[in-house]
Design brief:
About 20% of the residues lie in helices and about 35% in strands. It has three helices and six strands; from the N terminus they run E-E-E-E-H-E-H-E-H. It has helices at about 60-65, 95-105, 120, and strands at about 5-15, 20-30, 30-40, 45, 70-75, 115. The two termini are about 20 Å apart. Residues about 125-128 have low confidence and may be disordered.
């Protein structure tokens, strides 16, 4: 069952066009992740670093969506408006990777192309 919840849509002005961004939430195990998505097609997940959130990818979202991808930029656990579990063990790389793995499946995909940097760059090799 897909627990993704649409909250609102908005646009981000880019160089040539405006891309509609869909603001959503998904329950993935013990946390609820906020994410922004745009476009349709093969799934690309953009993973932010510290101390950022989805907005750091706003220019890449537009470019990838325009190129024919479904782009999802989540706020990782503990960031922006995603859940903030208590305790340092809740923030290990394995937990973050499992969140992303569950998000990919929640979105109806078996796999995705992952792009990450900084803290988000530690997670891509781990989701199955």
């Amino acid at each position: 069952m897909n627990s993704a919840t649409a909250i609102e849509s908005f646009t981000v002005a880019g160089a040539d066009d405006q891309v509609e961004l869909r603001d959503r939430y998904a329950d993935v195990g013990d946390v609820t992740l906020h994410y922004v998505e745009a476009g349709n097609g093969p799934l690309v997940v953009l993973l932010h670093g510290f101390p950022e959130f989805w907005y750091g990818w706003r220019l890449q979202i537009e470019a990838l969506a325009t190129a024919g991808f479904r782009v999802v930029a989540p706020d990782l656990r503990g960031y922006n408006v995603s859940s903030r579990p208590k305790g340092i063990k809740a923030y290990g790389a394995d937990r973050v990777a499992e969140d992303i793995n569950r998000l990919i499946h929640e979105l109806g995909y078996e796999s995705a192309m992952l792009v990450g940097h900084d803290w988000g760059g530690r997670s891509p090799g781990r989701p199955r």
